[in-house]
Every structure is written in C-alpha cells, then in structure tokens.
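Hello forum,

I keep getting stuck at the same step: I have a sequence, I want structure tokens, and every attempt I make locally crashes halfway through. Rather than fight my setup again tonight, could one of you with a working pipeline run this one for me? It's a single chain of 199 residues.
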Amino acid sequence: MFGGLLPKVHDSVKVWKPKFYPNEKGYQDDLFHHLRTNLNNDSFFGSSNYSVRMESGRNLCDIAVERAVGIELKHNLDKKAKVDRLLGQVSRYMQDYSEGVVIVLTGETSIKTLEDLKYELRNINTGDSMGFSQKNIKIVVKKTPKPRATSVKPKSKDSEPKKPKNKTSKPATAKKTAEPKKTRKKSNDPFKIELPKFF
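Reply #2:
Ran it on my machine without issues. Output:
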C-alpha cells in the first residue's frame, strides 16, 4: 500500500535506540513504549492516534499497530533452528495483519542467520520493490549495547584475610589434632599447695 502505515512503523523502528536488557521481554516493552510515543506525537500534519498494543496469543506478533502491521522481535537470532521457527511464525502472521510484518532483531545476530532469513523470506514476502502490494515483510537489525561490566570495588581492609605479622611462611602441613587439656579441680583450702607434675 502506497503511503500506508507499514512505512511509518518501519521508519519508527529504525530510529529506536534500545538500552541493554537481559532478555527479549525487556526489548519488547521498550519498543512498545517507543512506538506508542513516536507514532502518536504531534507532527506538522497534526497529531495521530494509532492503536499500538502488545499482542498475546499463539498466532499473533509481539506488538500490533492498528491490526495493520505486526511487529515480531527476536533477541539473539543465532541458530538455524531459531530462523526456521521465525519463518513459520511470520508465515502465519501474514494472514492476520493487513499491511505486513516488521521483524526486529536485537542482541547477537550472526551474518549467516540473517542471510538465511532474508533468503527464506523471499518465498513468503508478497510485496514488490515499489511497495505497491498488499503485504510486505521488513527486517530491522538493531545493534544493542553490551551489558556494562560490573566494576570491581577495592576490598576494604576488613574484608581482606589477616596475615600473621613477623612470622615466616611455612609450607602447609597436616595439622596435628590437639589433645584435650587435663584440668585439675582447684581446692578452696588456703593451706593446700599444688605442685606441678613433671612426667
């Protein structure tokens, strides 16, 4: 469709700058909020009021815009099995969205899996090069930031193991088991003297 919703959604996804998230759900939520804000902001031609919602269900994309465009987000598309699964999903989604589907790839996406995906989508993609067809599939690859390395804090003096002072280190040997000390009962008699035993 010329001038339809798919080009607007595609352009909006391309300008999305995601933060790092540990899982796919975080990216879905971030993209959802971006699209809802970006597609419905005031522009030179007036404001828009597109319905952007999270989808749920077996045969539905992650996000839908006006039931015209489905958005399927995949995080770390790095194996052929994941590509095959995505192809099956997109094939089903094409029946549910009037203009087509935008596939958004985040995280680690290998060049090989991306090329496999593009090649296999040619069999599903019904759009022509001018965008005049009724349905299309677009792919957007987003470079996502790497997780921040946690800084190693210097240990405080209290947390370091204490080293014995003025002692030379000896090789580790088996510790001798200490025998229990024999204790004598002290007498309360002030005139009784106890002599040490030597044996």
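DSSP finds four helices and seven strands in the chain. If your local run keeps crashing, start a new thread with the error log.
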